[in-house]
UniProtKB/TrEMBL annotation, chain A:
Record lineage: Eukaryota, Metazoa, Ecdysozoa, Nematoda, Chromadorea
Protein name from the UniProt record: Cullin family profile domain-containing protein
Pathway(s) the chain acts in: Protein modification; protein ubiquitination
Key word Ubl conjugation present: yes
Sample GO molecular function, one term: ubiquitin protein ligase binding
PROSITE patterns recorded: CULLIN_2 (PS50069)
Family statement drawn from the similarity comment of this UniProt entry: Belongs to the cullin family.
InterPro entries, per database record: Cullin, Cullin-like_AB, Cullin_homology, Cullin_homology_sf, Cullin_N, Cullin_neddylation_domain, Cullin_repeat-like_dom_sf, WH-like_DNA-bd_sf
UniProtKB/TrEMBL annotation, chain B:
All copies of domain DCUN1, residue ranges: 21-214
PANTHER family assigned to the protein according to its UniProt record, in alphabetical order: DCN1-LIKE PROTEIN, RP42 RELATED
One BP term from GO: positive regulation of protein neddylation
Protein name according to UniProt: Defective in cullin neddylation protein
GO CC annotations, alphabetized: plasma membrane; ubiquitin ligase complex
């Protein structure tokens, strides 16, 4: 038959020779060749189908057999074409046997360009075969360029064998530090990429990835694995990190210059695995010592490098937390040995450690959230639990007290008050530490007391600083936290006006008080409780009090004034001593001294004083005691610990002082400090109970119905900004609220509470 | 329509007649126990003495659980007393006209309670309001213990431990929430406390109790 392979092949072969021989092929000749293939294909299919009809096999198989080509006689034609191409291409490439490296590569590139054109023509001629051809195991309906593809594989086989090692060697040489012709490698890479371009979607995959990248990455891994081990044998770990940094940069640059951009990711990953992941225990081992040695740059390097791998930072965060906690506790250990009660030392110790690591976290660890958290956890740990709290019997009020006292030192008028800018900075520091205090309500209590003393005593260094501090506290804890502080401040301001207006009023009404008078009117609910002093005021003072009462009532009808003598003080001048002295004294001290106005030489016994001042003994004794200490008053009889009713006191005519103005208020009349601490504790407990209940009610009011566990966790979370809440106490509060019918248990579920509107 | 309507009127009147006989019978029973001179509560109430007589007739002791069941069924407000309304409405609703009927009803109810947890719960909740003095909000602890014993007898193994715990801790009153939860506790928690859930909303007192038992067990274990 005229369509048999044997018949048409010679003509086809001469046509192929023409193509490879670069001889021109006329259209008519092209059509003849095309027709050979076409007729052959059509005929083969017919001869294939007919016998199938005559002797049908099982239906399923016949199609598959056709498809997989085992029955397709076109396969013989395809085989011949393949053989022809293999022979011709191999022959053509032999020309390059004498060539090397770049010359060889140029040769391949040229050949490739030629072949590309030839194959376009060949593909045209064999189009029909392409369409029907099915190789065993290969999907049908493949693109028609399979002939070209075949040649590509041929070409690559040559490239792989004769060429790839050379390229890899060049890259190795470059890594070893030699200069190489990079543009050559870039051309090779581009060639591999181009080879794939005809292949539809997986263009990079088949040639560049499979043939080039895979090998390149393998080489990289081997090279750097050896390098890492060798380098570490001869160099320190810190040098190693620098080396890695350099290598990673180089590889990124290499990729940028002569590899395909998509290689960067797997390339970096290989480097990171080899250099970091596989050596991670070195990083973890050296992190601690580097922290100790304060090698911030190296720490930053560890952070940068370990951050590149998954979970690489977790161990470091824990190590940092442990380290800061230890540092903080060591610092406070030292302070506890020397001065466990000095707020300045305490703050200095805390700040030194905290600021050091805050700086480190921000500089070396880029303020990464996990490292900041480690800093916070550690700070909170060592600030609240340390040698000083241990000395205080693990009392949770020691830290808040010291910090409140530190604030007092800053804000109280003294010789060494600091300037505004430094004050701002110091307050900022206080807040930085305050943030970590667990029991913020205890701080609030101490702070309130001290603020109260500063305001009443007029001892504030600066009003600006006071209000700055209040607003900082407000920022951190909310308006509720600073409400009272704010009102105390306002009361003080208003009192100045009240005093001024009262003076004017006295002038208008022609009332002569015979003394200077200033008043502070304090809101009962905002100020801390103050000890009451029961006593009969000397006439001179009580007159003024009456005047003020009248005045105040005309201004604010219905307000009840109660007088807190324990906080009042005044100045008086003396004539009873050798020199003329001015005394600053508490009102009670004044009252006692004024008893001697009538007859400076007389001696009074305690009983008489009690009667005249209408003061109970336990309140009078500390007052007299304070005057004894100052030497104003001399005891007529020996004073034991216990002053008897009959003890006699007189002015001390020999009293002397270097200063003209003598401050008697400094001698504290402290009598019941211990009791007060107990009261404070009760107050805190009570306050916490109220806050807890309010919190529960607030939550339930919005949620209406809530499961036990959710309620508990929400309450704990909300309260933790003020103090460390105790679950049992929260539960007791819930029960109390149920008892008082704010809440009830849901009828249908014992673990659910409902709000009662 | 009309014959039907006729029919129903007759039925109704029959029912009415029956109801009347029942009411009369029930009220006669009431009068047997009411207005005892020793009680001195007037004709509208059965007082403590009357109740004692009633219990005697029923053949049950004064600390029998059936006494509580009776009060519950009649929705009684005050201990050892029944008003005419409570008595009449209660017995009519139960369909009881004689002491024998009443005894049977009580026995039947008691049997049901053994099996029906929700019914036990209503009786249990009723006991709290019934058992405490009328205008008090809480029940004192000793009274509560007496009622627990009547209600539970030996149903729960932990009851004795619970009552002695309350006495050691010198608890004086049992708040209603605790009363309610005690039943839940006995019903839900095994005698060995293995399934006690620390995270659940148990009142603190019950948590303390559990801690106490666990501690005791530990010391026993180590000894």
């Amino acid at each position: 038959m005229q369509y048999e392979v044997e018949t048409i092949w010679p003509d086809l072969e001469s046509g192929l020779d023409d193509i490879f021989g670069e001889r021109r092929i006329e259209q008519k000749r092209y059509m003849t060749l095309y027709t050979h293939v076409y007729n052959h294909c059509i005929n083969s299919i017919k001869s294939l189908v007919n016998p199938a009809i005559l002797a049908p096999k099982s239906g399923r198989n016949s199609i598959n057999d056709y498809r997989n080509g085992s029955l397709f006689s076109g396969s013989e034609l395809y085989q011949r074409l393949k053989n022809y191409l293999e022979r011709t291409v191999t022959e053509a490439l032999q020309e390059g046997n004498e060539k090397h490296d770049e010359e060889l590569f140029r040769f391949y590139v040229d050949k490739w360009k030629q072949f590309c054109f030839y194959f376009k023509v060949i593909d045209g001629i064999f189009d029909c075969l392409n369409k029907h051809l099915c190789e065993p195991g290969v999907e049908v309906n493949r693109d028609s360029k399979r002939v070209l593809f075949y040649v590509k594989t041929l070409l690559l086989r040559e490239l792989d064998a004769r060429f790839m090692q050379g390229v890899m060697d060049l890259i190795r040489q470059e890594r070893d530090g030699q200069t190489i012709d990079r543009s050559f490698i870039r051309a090779v890479v581009e060639f591999y990429v181009d080879l794939g371009i005809d292949e539809n979607s997986r263009s990079l995959e088949r040639f560049y990835r499979q043939k080039f990248e895979k090998r390149f990455l393998g080489e990289t891994e081997n090279y750097y694995t050896t390098e890492a081990d060798d380098f570490l044998q001869q160099n320190s770990f810190t040098e190693y990190m620098k080396k890695i940094e350099k290598r990673l940069n180089e590889e990124a640059e290499r990729c940028n210059f002569y590899l395909h951009a998509t290689t960067l990711q797997p390339l970096s990953q290989i480097c990171e695995t080899v250099f970091i992941q596989r050596k991670i225990e070195l990083f973890q081992r050296d992190f601690g010592p580097l922290l100790e040695q304060e090698r911030d740059d190296d720490l930053a390097r560890i952070y940068q490098l370990c951050g590149r791998i998954e979970q690489g930072l977790e161990e470091l965060k824990l190590a940092l937390e442990r380290h800061i906690t230890r540092q903080g506790q060591n610092a406070i250990d030292e302070i506890a040995k020397k001065s466990p009660n000095d707020p300045r030392e305490f703050m200095r110790g805390i700040l030194e450690v905290h600021m050091r690591y805050k700086g480190l976290v921000s500089k070396s660890f880029r303020d990464e959230a996990g490292f900041k958290e480690a800093l916070d956890k550690a700070s909170s740990h060592f600030i609240n639990k340390n040698a000083i709290t241990k000395i205080a019997g693990n009392s949770s009020s020691k830290v808040p007290e010291l910090i409140a006292r530190y604030c007092d030192l800053l804000l109280r008028k003294s010789k060494d008050n600091i300037g505004e800018a430094e004050m701002e900075e110091q307050l900022q520091n206080v807040i930085a530490v305050f943030k970590y205090i667990e029991d913020k309500d205890v701080f609030q209590q101490f702070y309130t007391k001290m603020l109260s003393k500063r305001l009443i005593g007029g001892l504030s260094a600066s009003d600006t600083a006071e209000s700055q501090m209040i607003s900082k506290l407000k920022q951190m804890c909310g308006i509720e936290y600073t409400n009272k502080l704010q009102r105390m401040f306002t009361d003080t301001e208003l009192s100045k006006n009240i005093t001024e207006n009262f003076r004017k009023n006295c002038q208008e009404k022609d009332i002569a008080l015979g003394l200077d008078f200033a008043i502070m009117v304090l809101g009962y609910s905002s100020w801390p409780s103050m000890p009451q002093l029961q006593m009969q005021m000397p006439l001179k003072l009580s007159e003024t009090i009456e005047h003020f009462k009248n005045y105040y009532n005309t201004q604010h009808n219905g307000r009840k004034l109660s007088w807190i003598y324990s906080q009042s003080r005044g100045e008086l001048s003396s004539t009873g001593f050798q020199k003329k002295y001015g005394f600053q004294a508490w009102t009670a001290q004044m009252a006692v001294l004024m008893l001697y106005n009538e007859a400076p030489k007389q001696a009074l016994n305690l009983k008489e004083m009690m009667l005249q001042l209408n003061m109970p003994k336990d309140q009078l004794v500390p007052v007299v005691g304070s005057l004894l200490k100052c030497g104003d008053v001399a005891a007529g009889t020996e004073v034991e610990n216990e002053i008897a009713d009959t003890a006699v006191f007189a002015l001390n005519p020999n009293f002397q002082s270097k200063k003209i103005k003598v401050d008697l208020t400094r001698t504290q009349m402290r009598s019941e400090v211990k009791k007060e601490a107990e009261k404070d504790k009760q107050y805190i407990e009570e306050d916490r109970r109220l806050v807890t209940e309010a919190c529960i009610v607030r939550i339930m009011k919005t949620r209406k119905r809530l499961a036990h566990n959710e309620l508990i966790s929400e309450v704990l979370q909300q309260l933790s900004t003020r103090f460390t809440p105790n679950v049992m106490k929260v539960r007791t509060s819930i029960e109390g609220l149920m008892e008082r019918l704010f809440l009830k248990r849901a009828e249908d579920a014992m673990n659910v509470y409902e709000y009662i509107a | 329509m009309s014959p039907n309507a006729q029919q129903s009127t007759t039925d109704e009147s029959n029912v009415m007649d029956d109801a009347k006989t029942v009411t009369v019978a029930v009220h006669q029973l009431f009068e047997r126990y009411a207005n005892k001179p020793a009680d001195n509560l007037g004709p509208d109430r059965i007082g403590p003495h009357g109740v004692l007589e009633l219990l005697e007739d029923l053949g049950i002791g004064s600390t029998d659980r059936k006494v509580l069941i009776l009060a519950w069924l009649l929705k009684a407000k005050i201990q050892c007393e029944f008003t005419a309304d409570e008595w009449n409405d209660g017995l009519v609703a139960l369909g009881v006209v004689s002491i024998d009927d009443l005894r049977m009803v009580l026995e039947k109810e008691e049997r049901i309670l053994e099996k029906d947890a929700s019914k036990l719960k209503t009786l249990y909740r009723f006991t709290y309001t019934f058992g405490k003095p009328e205008h008090h909000r809480k029940m004192d602890c000793e009274t509560a213990i007496v009622y627990w014993k009547i209600l539970f007898e030996d149903r729960y193994a932990l009851l004795d431990a619970w009552t002695s715990f309350l006495r050691v801790q010198q608890i004086d009153v049992i708040k209603s929430d605790i009363w309610n939860l005690v039943l839940e506790f006995f019903e839900q928690v095994d005698a060995n406390l293995s399934n006690y859930d620390d995270e659940a909303a148990w009142p603190v007192l019950l948590t303390d109790f559990v801690e106490h038992i666990r501690k005791e067990k530990c010391t026993v274990g180590t000894a």
